[in-house]
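Q: Can someone sanity-check these two? First one:
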Amino acid sequence: MKLVPSLTRKIATMIPRLASDYEGEIVATARAIGRVLNGANADWHDVVVAFERGAVAPENVRKKEPRRSKHSDRQSVRSWWELDDDERLEAVDYLIQQKWLSAWERTFIESIADQLHRHDLTDKQIAVVDRLLARAFRGTR
């Protein structure tokens, strides 16, 4: 199966965590990638094929930020409900890379990343994601 760009971007943002000094984080990351792949009816062999074909450019993924509303000031951040599917993936990928996240927030965002391919989020989950996005773009970390 050929991996779609949004899936390769998602996996590319997770792969650097495999270099952690903590075995538990390495295993958790590998299993999270496995769950993402499984949810897309793919496996690790598909990841290798994607890298061999140059389907992933991690340097582009790392710097990508979620799009902001065109109709508001620079400090305004769109809510989860205003984002399309690709923008939601970008937003979650961006949040995962933030060093200021607490351990709980990081685990939460990683679980959201896994859930995006399987089902909709609850209102409570969306409220937390919106709060984290606001912190990311308003500098209230």
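And here is the second, same format, sequence then tokens:
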Amino acid sequence: MIDLSRDIRADHAAELPAAREHMLPCTPRYRTIVAVDIAGSTTRANPGRARLRAQMYSLLNQALKITGITQQHHDPPVDRGDGALILIHACDQAPKTILLTTLIPVLRQLLADHNAYHPSQKFQLRAAVHAGEIHYDQWGTYGEAIDVTCRLLDAPELKRILTTTAEPAVLVVSDDIYRSIIRHGYDNIDGRNFHPIIRVEVAGLTYQGWVQEPTGNTAAAWAAQPATGSPSQVRPLRPSGTVESRPDHLDASTVSIAPPRRQHGDRVAGADGADPRRTADCRHRRTEPPEPPSPPVVQRRLARPGGNRWSRPS
């Protein structure tokens, strides 16, 4: 019987120094993270998934080249089976704005052209953009920033939005990207097209995702999405008969309200505003308009012999 325990222990002992070396405090590296994922790839057979992967990487490389982001500006793509991560270095040649204004739109257009020319092989992509500190070891990359990006990319809300639109790709950005880039309107980026409808949890913390509104005919589906972001400032309707505002120079102690002018035939109301000569049941109140008053008696002077006197007309 062959005893492999000694060989296994020897190999394990040889790996211990390298393992201890990687267990030392790691140095964080700042990267802008672009993640893409093929929608519905698990519903296809393996040969079909292989074709989709090849097409995805081809389109992604073309988009990076057109944008001007070369291999010296990013790490080799990190494969995710049905998607990929692009870790872009912090450099002037690859600012975050160019990812939103050029890279993602170019990738979306390339995918739209591919789907138009190859309808039997068309597919859709989900894309996410985030930035943060990541780490490297002998097995690859890891870090909380990568976890946040992947959670945003795989959010059920983003998958549901993609099923309601004919757009080739949808984009979600992290709250950091929105607050530092989008809301400032750099390079004419319209922040009104981004909506905070995604929330994910990583390491006990909640992260918000802003989804770029698709340009397709998705108004009904978009309106049905839950509003998980900060509540909008909706002005409530004021009840009829209430005063909405009062000028600052008016005070309740100095404002007097004049009683309504009495009309002919009105009775004097009591302290509670009710007619004391009426019953408490207002359902029997007359609804007919009041009778017009009788014409007043007018006196006139008549000239008669022997002096003027007052007389009443006949």
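A (reply): Looked at the second one. The longest strand covers residues 125-137. The helical segments are 5-22, 46-67, 96-117, 144-153, 156-163, 175-180, 219-223.
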